[in-house]
Fold this sequence. Notes:
Elements: H1 6-15, E1 19-22, H2 23-30, H3 36-45, H4 58-65, H5 69-96, E2 102-105, E3 122-125, H6 128-139, H7 143-151, H8 156-162, E4 165-168, H9 173-191
Parallel strand pairs: 1-2, 3-4
Helix pairs in contact: 2-5, 3-5, 6-7
Amino acid sequence: GPGSGKSTVARMFRDLGAQVIDADEVAHEAVSPGRPAWEELRREFGPDYFTEDGGLDRAKLSRLVFRDAEARGKLNAIVHPQVSREITRRLKEMANRGEKLVMVEVPLLFEGGLEKNYDLVIVVDSGEREQIERLTARDDRPRQEAAGIIDAQWPLSAKKARADFVVDNRNSLKKTRGQVKKLWQRLKNHLDKGFQKS
């Protein structure tokens, strides 16, 4: 969920030695000037959603798509396939290097029907109040806009119900780190004999 602490948890896994692909980072690359997704977005949304130097005005487009479901659908239809292809390419490259366990940090996983692409799903859980506080502090968004972003996505309760593992990020970072450490050990222990779903 937005503001739940996905990136914080991904960093914790990375600190423990995990290979992590950040889908947001891949998406930023996909919409950089001159790339196919950038061209399509410019045709679909027009120059008003681009900065003077040609870059995508992410903040402005974000405000549009989280209040307009049709615009959100168009954005996702343009960007998601490009991102999925690049993530698949990176996963194959890592597999060829002998990496046996790779994590992918993905926003909108269930909303985009992407969970089928992965062996296991870890959901980072948090309270809505914490989510709003993090979004307003991180992105300098008004509280109402932050709440709208949360409302436009599946509730965390629905995501948790479909998850293989849940990391509770409602308390201290120390407690979250403890859960991550235990889960990382569990994943490594099960790697050679096949994952056991919770």
